[in-house]
Amino acid sequence: MSHDLSGRLNRYVNDLFAREDDVLRFVRQQTEAQGLPLINLEPNEARLLQLLVMLSGAERVIEIGTLAGYSGIWIARALPPQGALTTIEKSSVHASLARSHFERAGLADKVTVLQGQGLQVLQKLVADAPYDLMFIDADKVSYPNYLEWAAKNLRVGGAVVADNAFWQGNIFNPSTADDHGMADFNQALAEHPQFESTIIAVGDGIALGVKTS
Ligand SMILES: C[S@@+](CC[C@H](N)C(=O)[O-])C[C@H]1O[C@@H](n2cnc3c(N)ncnc32)[C@H](O)[C@@H]1O
Predict the structure, then answer these.
(1) Residue 130 in contact with residue 98, Cβ under 8 Å?
(2) Ligand 1: which residue has its CA nearest to atom 14?
(3) Nearest atom of ligand 1 to the alpha carbon of 72
(4) 45 CA closest ligand 1 atom index
(5) What are the backbone dihedrals phi and psi of residue 70, each rounded to the nearest 5 degrees, phi first?
(6) Is the pTM of this model over 0.85?
(7) 209 CB neighbour count, 10 Å cutoff
(8) Whole-angstrom distance, CA of residue 203 vs CA of residue 208
(9) For 3-211, CATH number?
(10) Residue ranges per domain, the chain?
(11) Could you tell me how far CA 118 lies from the centroid of its own chain?
């Protein structure tokens, strides 16, 4: 598919199915204004994630990689009244901006932002397992470790969702540590005895695994 056509189709989906409200627009504007990297999900990817949260009936969700809270708002809005999102962010600047955005979105009671390195924070969350869904969108080298955590700490029927599965094509000839992290993650997910999985060709590739045992 040509670049032009895929851009046009993305806009078509965004306009029809993934329209942002004032809060989401504000979060995107602030991400830029505060000098954070513009690496949040696109609306169509976030909408897909939101529907996966709904479809799986998730109540307890873990996200790794909060940034300014953009994807977290989409996730939290899909949760039932008793649902909760715990989102992990290594940068204190990102974490604090995200907290203010969850507040602004009226989601502060549903979302906990934990500041720290993903793998370290996850160790502390083991005590409260199992969880229903894990969304991975942080350091690429740790994706295989995040998958192993998900295998141990999601309930059967729960889902692991990961952004950047295509890694802009760098999974074909991995050279950097990040490239290898993504290629290894995809391979491990595909072969994992506890997951049924695929990659959905939206955005930079959204990997999805359903835990079956
Ligand atoms: C792609 S952005 C997340 C985007 C966010 N999910 C969204 O769509 O709005 C990745 C974030 O992960 C954070 N990060 C990177 N390495 C991390 C680690 N080891 N543990 C926790 N967070 C990390 C970065 O600081 C950055 O804010």
Answers:
(1) no
(2) 138
(3) 9
(4) 8
(5) -60, -60
(6) yes
(7) 25
(8) 14
(9) 3.40.50.150
(10) 3-211
(11) 13
